[in-house]
Amino acid sequence: MTATQTVEVKGDPAPLAAPLVGRAMPRVEDAALLTGVARYADDLPVKPGTLHAAILRSPHAHAELLDIDFAAALAVPGVAAVVTGADAKRHASAFLVGVRAPMEHWCLAIDRVRHVGEPVAVVLADSRYQAEDALDRIEVRYRPLPPVTSIAQALGEGALAEGSEPLHPAVGSNLVNSRSFRYGDPEAAFARATRTVSIEVEYPRNSCTPMECFVVLADYDAAEDAYEVLSNFSGPFAVHPVMARALNVPGSRLRLKTPPHSGGSFGNKQAVFPYVVLMGLCARVAGRPVKWVEDRLEHLMAATSATARRMRIEAAVEPDGRVLALRMEQTEDCGAYLRAPEPASLYRNHGNLTGAYDIAHLAVTNRIVVTNKTPTGLNRGFGGGQLYYGLERLMNRVAAELGLDPLDVIRRNLVAAEAMPYRTASGGTLDSGDYRATLEQAVRDGGLEALKARRDALRAEGRLYGIGYAAVVEPSISNMGYITTVLTAEERRKAGPKNGAQATASVAVDPTGGVSVTVASAPQGQGHRTVLAQVVADVFGLRFEDIRVNTDLDTGKDAWSIASGNYSSRFAGAVAGAAQVAATRLRGRMAALVAGLLNCRAADVRFAGGRVFSDANPDNGLSFSRVAAAGHWAPGTLPDGQEAALRETAFWTPEPLKAPTDADHINSSACYGFIFDFCGVEIDRTTGAPRIDRYVTMHDAGRLLNPLLVEGQILGGFAHAVGTALFEEYAYGDDGRFLSGTFADYLVPTACEVPVPVILHRESPSPVTPLGAKGVGEGNCMSTPVCLANAVADALSGVAVGGLPPLPPSLPLTPAKLAALIHPPEPPRPAPATGASASPMPAAVPGGRGLTGEGSREVPATPEQVWAILLDPKELAALLPGCEALELVGPNAYRAEVVVGIGPVRGRYTAEVALSDLDPPNALTLTGSGTSALGSGSGTGHVTLEPTATGTRVTYRYGASVGGKVAAVGGRMLDSASRLLIGQFFEKLVARAGGPAASARPPSLLVRLLRLLGLTR
Amino acid sequence: MPPLTSRPPTTPVLAAETRHAVSVVLNGTPRTGHAHPRLLLSDFLRHELGAHGTRVGCEHGVCGACTVRLDGVAVRACLTLAVQADGRRIDTVEGLAAANQGRMTALQEAFRRHHALQCGFCTAGILMSLTDYLGRNPKPTEEELRDMLSGHLCRCTGYAGIVRAVMDVTGQAGGVPARGPAEGGHV
Known about the structure:
Chain A is 27% helix and 26% strand. Chain A is α+β, with helices and mostly antiparallel strands. The termini of chain A are far apart. Chain B starts with 19 loop residues before the first strand and ends in an 18-residue tail after the last helix. The interface between A and B is large, with 76 and 70 residues.
């Protein structure tokens, strides 16, 4: 039996044993994980005949897709099929989009690619190795288009490149949605205020990058027109209907399963959903099961990203720092496509836009733009890091401009305990807590005075040391209706109301007295099974080990709702709560079953110590297993009208989660925890490197169900936040090239970079959730980046040159950026003395990374002899590094097959090579451009030949640009690699012209190192 | 002019298109599988021998998830070819408890006690590196330990529990509180 209702669970009288909830229980999950027997998605068996997929991805940020020739790929041994956008059009549909704008996003590019890494074709083969071989054989013709690579460009600020057009031409603009909101009377408040303080900040693209990448195993049943997919998808299951619609089937014909273990998500595994559809399509086209495992390059380049956000925020303030009103202008970069559930990043915090502060008047403008970058999605802190980076930098700035202590400004504006539950200007309900007392406790127990003394002492030594603060509310359990705030009230009326957040849990007893719990929470390593065992064991008065929890999900059999999944910190409040509701109901049913036997009322039946007994007469009792067996073996003895006590499924939704009102008030989350952080950061005056000296984080997350796991969540969130603040950014070139495709480029903090914060707690139970718990996993991703930035701002006051100190740069706060604020600019490097070369530097490739170089060599041959070598195709073929074939295609124009390796990527390029500006025997220009599955490259080199006493001086200058996979993984090596390749060309030329053979010298250390790395042969 | 020189053809020891028998001693048990010369040791262990305990996190040698011991030395299985392991001893996470009368080792138990893992995906590699490392350096300082751990990426724990577990199992728990407030200062 299932029912949807809101249940208030009454507290139990004290059980015999101390409750398990609230205890730091080690996890039931760990034994399997520590001994290697855990089964993640890639460890599960596949059906015989399963094909392995490899995905061809766009090397261009923005291009028209002209045609795809995959005949050669089909000829590669082991290849069964190649799937393209044409197949998608035949068997699938575009994904549903959350705003009303004509933007089509398909699981495979149809006629245009809009970001580097967008899937263009899929090869299906007997092995992944074969499939990847065949990718190199697919030829795709593109017509590159000018890319949009920044929020400013998307908004049309500044000049656009020639030929620019919107990413989605039917929308007519890259600004795809804009809404303004007004709460209270912000105009009057700003008019009344003595002063306004404003800042503008940008939040970068980054991502939590779980250690396990995406995995999809898909099969299609043609007889039933049904898909069965196993994937490490993490939810929200609101995306399930999006996937089903894209596969042109009802949800009942997309059976989605999750594996027993998942290697982390932090929200990111929501973004596997387009691949669930893509691999379903592939299985259908190939008529065989398909398996795809994302590799790290694919993940970094094209999986998902946090939104980049530009925020202008302005406060109307009183002289004492009291904030009367806020004006916000948020512009969100959602990447190339608005992918479900976006634009949720921008609206997730809509009910708590004023943070932990009592600010009654608010004006907000939210804009959503598309850019030629990877589409965005769920990422730990989801929208909170972006919001609080603006809000808490502003509060810090208010203090700086008014000459107040930043902590006093926070104190003066916090919501008062007496005001709880507090309704925010935008409609949120802050449910519980005493923020001021919590702050004072942190100041005291976290040792702020000692930290201030330390700052003063270090500053007296001339060191750059600062203290930062941040106060935030941490929302948890998202309202399924908040995303509709992006729509107008009129649009919402047409679409029908959306609200709530239904959590589900099923609890069953078996005939031996074993208790099973199943939930649809799709855990990604947080320890859901452990906490659920604690909760349910307490309800039945059983031992921890008596409860077996199963968190695999099968949408074909299990109870789930669109709100199911692992996101918005909903487990402790909603899912554990639902399990308690289900267990309590089942216990009530069992009590009714045995009340007659125990000669007492059902209400007086107690469950404790593995026994079931009458409260009035504890000696009169039965074992729990006996009662469990009765439900199975003796249904005939059940009182009339009573169902057997075997299994209960509860659907629980938080009462306060309503749909947005016509005035756009929205309580976007069910609970709001409170966090107050402070920290000390020192900046190295010489290098600009920031060092976290001390970090204190104070949490009120309601009732703590398992303090050990809560601490783990805080430590993990903090580590992510340290990465966000100091190291991590998805970097792109001006032309949209992706530049951080390895963990050597995208810098995840290691054990040497993450300090251990001081963690403090206060528990104000939530009145909303059954167990009083609130979410806790995301908070530090909201509070910590800005807290560190505020400390950096304070430290930079040591380098203030009159007036205010420099503002901290955009995240991440890298040593280079901070050093630039500390030191005067370096003088330009002196021009290299390469002789009087008259040739101008080749024009930079538009938007290119600017790989340039020059050099000269003395050759013991006449200019005419050297000229003859360069103009002879056979000779040229021997000179070009990695050239395996060269054919003449026109006057002084060639097509070359070149194999080049950069870092771990070795690719075969078809290159067009041409000689121009011929001035025999004095000068010529050599241009080349090539593309392959690994990316594209182009370059220009000027060569001049000058006669000398002993031969010829060959002088060259070049400019080159490389994109696609090579740029993503080899960015750090491109300069040295191109120098090496060009060096090889001229070494060979010198050798060919009779000079000393290059190999006569022992290779330099650099060359040997590069050889070791596979950069050269 | 001298004649154009070309690279002398190299004779491959193993034919690229052929699967070769690869025999290893995996966690003390002789095992044989077949591998093309280009097959990674990580893929060989997982998909040829069915030893799934070794995880693959980046396939470019940075994250450390796939670390196994090859003749006792910690190596990245994703940067090692299966054929390179022929005739050698490989130890993986599955062998830790097996070599300890079927019970988890003290290190594994300490990981559990100190919540040194969440999703567990990086754990096998860290355990294998630590087993090698602690054999050579049984009482590392916290700084030495963190330096060694910097060869592994963990996204869940912030490394705090891992450090605590190792300090505990090496008899140095006094320096690091089991749980609760701790001072920063490692960066």
